Amino acid sequence: MKKILFLLLTLIFVSACDVQQSEPEIPNKPSEVPDKAFWVGGLDGGVFVLIEKNKNLEANEYLGEIYYVSGDIAYKGKMSILPKDNTVIDYMNPKTYQGWDGDTLYVVGNKQLKVQE
């Protein structure tokens, strides 16, 4: 009888626990966001990101477009890689990026793309 009661209480406890989502859901991309932009975010939110490089930029500079989930633009312009000795990143790979805080796009390996003022 004690085993059944213990099993029953355990079952009730386990069923009462919330199921936590471990993978972020990628929202639908609004029409204002370029097709090449990709989602960078986690369970608490994120942004759509488009990073580009061209020959007119310095070695440590990239062009960035950051869009909120609504499609509104958060930032558009030049961004600089920090530390400066890390001039090359896999900028077209979504897995390169870890998050956006409003003026910094965090890159794997303790790198950052900072908004140029």
What can you tell me about this protein's structure?
Strand 3 (61-67) and strand 4 form a beta hairpin. The protein has one domain (30-115). The chain has a seven-stranded antiparallel beta sheet with strand order 1-2-3-4-7-6-5, with no helix packed on it. Helices cover 13% and strands 37% of the residues. The chain has one helix at 2-16; strands spanning 38-42, 45-52, 61-67, 73-82, 97-100, 104-107, 111-115. The protein has 117 residues and is mainly beta. The termini are far apart.
Describe the secondary-structure layout.
Elements: H1 2-16, E1 38-42, E2 45-52, E3 61-67, E4 73-82, E5 97-100, E6 104-107, E7 111-115
Antiparallel strand pairs: 1-2, 2-3, 3-4, 4-7, 5-6, 6-7
Protein name: Lipoprotein
Signal peptide: 1-16
Keywords: Signal
Number of strands: 7
Catalogue the unreliable spans: none
In sequence order, what are the helices and strands, one letter per element?
HEEEEEEE
- Overall 3D shape: globular
* Distance N to C terminus: 71 Å
Count of structural domains: 1
Continuous helix count: 1
Proportion of helical residues: 10-25%
Strand order of the largest sheet: 1-2-3-4-7-6-5
* Radius of gyration computed on alpha carbons: 21 Å
Task: Describe the largest sheet.
Answer: 7 strands, antiparallel
Protein name: Lipoprotein
Organism: Pseudoalteromonas sp. SD03
Keywords: Signal
Signal peptide: 1-16
